[in-house]
Design a protein that fits this description.
Helices cover about 20% and strands about 30% of the residues. It has 6 helices and 15 strands.
């Protein structure tokens, strides 16, 4: 059975997600549809890119991911297919797919331009239903990627970068704030753990804040409402509050720089 995932900023109040699923089920057989999330913040391409990248690693070979966070829908922006070493990504050419593609490796980018593989009447505002879902169904049917459109070498990229860690400091930036208000950086957790033991203190400089905090194995080792540092499930260095919202309390924004001093 073919697995197709959906990730959007549509929410669940409207019927948009159901319409995409209806198209998939109408055009291809034996599909297992998995919802990654439909609660990406509206038009927040960076948030969607982070969530997609962190999700694809847990899906089997051959999975097709349809991602729709698309503030440029109906404009000249392209729709694309990105086959990788093991999975296939479909979405708008706005950087949304690129961190996941880079993680999966050996990717190509193909434009979706052939009307044979779209709905007969394509709306100006709902390409997720009228283009992306029908393309996914046709990929399942075995249509080669080059039949959908030409290969692209100039596409919109998005890269979260990688923090730098040495034996005294770490520097990076904030790349994601999750629904709990946890502040997630681009600093590799394994590298941090080479220099810092659980229970040790760190000095962090983030936004306009300078704070001394403790590095814990998990949230529950800290007091309620205590600010702490940890390595989260994405194996990235995080700053959190046990049972609280760290981003709100500290006034942190995406792309804020962070510096960490090890004692």
């Amino acid at each position: 059975m073919n697995t197709v995932t959906l990730m959007t900023d549509f929410g669940t109040k409207s019927g948009y997600v159901a319409q995409m699923k209806g198209v998939l089920l109408s055009h291809a057989n034996a599909i297992n549809i998995v919802d990654i999330t439909h609660e990406i913040s509206p038009q927040n391409v960076r948030e969607g890119a982070f969530v997609l990248k962190q999700s694809v690693k847990y899906f089997p070979k051959g999975t097709i991911h349809i991602a729709v966070v698309d503030p440029g829908v109906g404009t000249e922006r392209k729709a694309i297919i990105v086959p990788t070493r093991s999975q296939i990504l479909i979405g708008p050419d706005n950087g949304l797919l690129m961190p996941a593609a880079r993680y999966l490796g050996d990717f190509e980018v193909h434009e979706i331009s052939n009307p044979l593989y779209m709905m007969q009447n394509v709306s100006n505002t709902f390409h997720g239903r009228d283009i992306l879902s029908t393309v996914a169904a046709n990929i399942i049917k075995g249509v080669p990627f080059d039949q959908f459109g030409k290969r692209l070498f100039n596409f919109v990229d998005l890269d979260f970068g990688q923090g730098i860690v040495d034996n005294q400091t770490a520097t990076g930036k904030i790349i994601h704030i999750d629904s709990f208000g946890n502040i997630i950086t681009n600093i590799d957790g394994d590298k941090i753990k080479k220099y810092v033991e659980y229970g040790e203190k760190l000095m962090i400089f983030i936004g306009s804040e300078r704070k001394e905090i403790t590095f814990f194995k998990s949230y529950g080792f800290a007091r309620k409402n205590q600010i702490l540092a940890t390595v989260g499930s994405s194996n990235l260095f995080e700053i959190v509050i046990n049972q609280g919202d760290a981003a709100k309390r500290l006034g942190i924004k995406l792309d804020d720089e962070i510096k960490i001093l090890f004692f």
